[in-house]
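comment on this one:
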Amino acid sequence: MGLLSILGIGGKSENVNDFVNKGAVIIDVRTPAEFQGGHIKGSKNIPLNTISSKINDLKKLNKPVIACCASGMRSSQATSILKSNGIDAMNGGGWSSLENKL
């Protein structure tokens, strides 16, 4: 496993389809103001600074999570937090590039 995989960054395009096929939920970890400026239809806005307090809610969904943000940095942090709490998660990167892959 390479460093990029550990950070949740590697092999996005093939994993996105796998996650979507498993019924993944898309979590946008940008601020509410950024989210209002544009987002993937159907995604949920859970800002990075609140993601730890939403772990139990996300676990109850019993679905994998694709995290996205503006560039992929915050979603990388969110993916690490989610994975460390036992949630099947991947870093989808920037929301606009993720939207193009869906």
